[in-house]
Design brief:
alpha/beta, 6-stranded mixed β-sheet
Length: about 180
């Protein structure tokens, strides 16, 4: 089984970190993984994307062509990448930042007010993890016991206190 994922938004929304977390989770479950970050020259506010491929077989190319999963964190990303979600695929959009909804009937579209939910719960900057939690709920992509060790691997020792907060944000997105 191969899953092609794209996370897209603005610089500073944690797109690359979320992608790194998914890549570690995939590796911890023994899958083949590609992680391909891309961002504009701006430190914050520029375009940021991260594509991943998770597979049970060797991956021939890191290029993501037809998305199985799209996580869109801003309107330009929603507009640009929503057409690339394959029929039957999943799109999760941060409805706090995206005023439009998908008109496609051939995909599963979930609107999650992640940025507002993070703000309301004093989790500023963790909308990305709320969306990841929703993706995990919708897909069952990883075993629940993989989440904490994968997150621990992504967080540097100097920010170890962020582990519990990130896990709380994932749980919030999962609906716990």
């Amino acid at each position: 089984m191969t899953t092609q994922i794209l996370l897209a938004g603005s610089g500073g929304q944690g797109i690359l970190f979320a992608g790194k977390f998914l890549a570690y989770a995939g590796m911890m479950e023994g899958r083949e993984v590609t992680w391909y970050p891309s961002y504009g020259p701006e430190a914050r506010g520029g375009t940021s994307t991260c594509s991943l491929i998770l597979s049970d077989a060797p991956i021939g190319s890191p290029i993501v062509t037809q998305l199985d999963i799209l996580i869109a964190m801003n309107l330009p990303s929603f507009i640009k990448y929503e057409p690339n979600v394959r029929p039957g695929g999943l799109m999760i959009a941060d409805s706090s930042m995206i005023s439009e909804t998908s008109q496609r009937e051939d995909i599963r579209a979930c609107c999650v007010p992640a940025t507002q939910a993070a703000y309301d719960r004093d989790m500023k900057g963790l909308a990305n993890m709320i969306l990841i939690g929703r993706m995990l709920k919708e897909t069952g992509l990883f075993a629940p016991e993989t989440v904490e060790p994968a997150m621990a691997k992504c967080i540097p020792a100097s920010k170890a206190a962020m582990l519990a907060l990130n896990l709380r944000a994932i749980a919030l997105g999962f609906g716990e």
